[in-house]
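F.,

This is the one I mentioned.
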């Protein structure tokens, strides 16, 4: 069925949010059209979210208000908990996403825009959580982190410091302070996050992944000791399976993650190999592998009949870049449960960028990948206003889907 025909038979949520949905005249529940989007908003911190005056966050909120997704994954928003930098003592852990909604998205960011609201979920993150191990083999154990400086007058985050990197290199996931570079899932309030059935994989050990690509020295000896290897976690942030109930009764699983970039390492290639295995995790999860266990020790992957979307900055391009063993093309897009790659592109040319590049560093790294029984209506990469003052180093990637009723 052609996309032009699909839009005439769908109950669509791709509209300005309203208090209630119109009920279809037919007693049969129709397919439901939704827009899902992933957006790396580049190192947003708690201090940025305690006021409504950050100019960069205003621009980010404006983009989101123009695109009006129903499901939105934000990468690189700090996970907050009491004791983390600038987090109020009485704060509920994982409140930064709601702060962003309340202070920025709920306020029109241009005269022609309307506010937008979301329910929010933030999984805890391995970033900046110290291992008490010398993971980078520099013979130093740096267990304290410098307090991050505030953003500049334009809202840009302060740069990493040598001391901050020394701390981050011995953490479960690279973060110059606890919670940095985490992620948040924002969901249209007409949809429901099934909080009782969220699965997270923060503590899943890298060594437990079948075929784990252990970092090796040039002489083929292990880069980390056996004790360190047994302690290392796979997720640089977290992997999470978040079920979302749609108004037509369907459940859509948002499979969210943000693997480490395959860079910034030495001949042992620990980041490249970790990036590979963080992406391979989803391949095994979709195969319902019993080698997978969640943070409650429940084993197995996703139900074979479940609808899902894989979302996030996966830090790998299937055609170019420095990833190890091409994890997107060889270990993800080949999974039979995925639909054909929707391959979003942008109609706005930017010098030295391919139409499918989702980042300023000239790579396709951000994805929304649907399961095989979801119909793709439309896709895109938003590059409007992508001059020198675009607020992030990534562009939002969106996809419109038809989700069948159960």
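My design for it:
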């Amino acid at each position: 069925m052609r996309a032009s025909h699909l839009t005439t038979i769908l109950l669509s949520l791709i509209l300005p949010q309203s208090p209630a949905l119109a009920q279809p005249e037919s007693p049969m529940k129709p397919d439901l059209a939704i827009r899902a989007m992933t957006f790396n908003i580049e190192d947003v911190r708690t201090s940025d979210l305690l006021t409504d005056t950050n100019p960069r966050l205003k621009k980010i909120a404006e983009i989101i208000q123009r695109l009006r997704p129903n499901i939105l994954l934000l990468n690189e928003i700090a996970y907050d908990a009491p004791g983390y930098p600038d987090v109020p003592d009485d704060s509920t852990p994982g409140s930064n996403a709601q702060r962003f909604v309340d202070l920025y998205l709920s306020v029109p960011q241009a005269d022609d825009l309307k506010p937008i609201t979301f329910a929010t979920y933030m999984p805890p993150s391995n970033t900046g959580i110290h291992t008490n191990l010398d993971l980078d083999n520099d013979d130093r154990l740096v267990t304290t982190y410098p307090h991050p400086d505030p953003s500049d007058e334009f809202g840009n985050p302060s740069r990493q410091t040598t001391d901050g990197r020394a701390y981050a290199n011995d953490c479960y996931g690279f973060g110059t302070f606890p919670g940095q570079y985490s992620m948040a899932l924002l969901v249209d309030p007409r949809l429901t996050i099934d909080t009782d059935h969220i699965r997270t994989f923060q503590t899943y050990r890298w060594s437990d992944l079948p075929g784990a690509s252990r970092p090796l020295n040039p002489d083929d000896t292990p880069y980390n000791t056996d004790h360190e290897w047994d302690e290392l976690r796979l997720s640089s942030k977290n992997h999470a399976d978040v079920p979302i109930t749609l108004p037509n009764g369907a459940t859509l699983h948002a499979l969210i993650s943000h693997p480490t970039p395959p860079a910034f390492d030495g001949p042992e290639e620990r980041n490249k190999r970790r990036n590979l295995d963080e992406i391979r995790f989803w391949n095994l999860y979709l195969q319902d592998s019993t080698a997978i266990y969640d943070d409650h020790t429940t084993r197995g992957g996703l139900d074979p009949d479940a609808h899902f979307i894989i979302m996030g900055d996966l830090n790998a391009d299937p055609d170019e870049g420095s990833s190890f063993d091409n994890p997107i093309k060889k270990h993800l897009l080949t999974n039979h449960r995925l639909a054909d790659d929707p391959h979003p592109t942008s109609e706005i040319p930017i010098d030295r960028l391919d139409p499918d590049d989702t980042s300023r560093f000239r790579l396709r790294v951000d994805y929304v990948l649907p399961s095989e029984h979801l119909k793709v209506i439309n896709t895109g990469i938003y590059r409007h206003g992508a001059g020198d003052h675009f607020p992030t180093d990534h562009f939002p990637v969106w996809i419109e889907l038809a989700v069948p009723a159960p």
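The chain has one domain: 38-403.

Talk soon.
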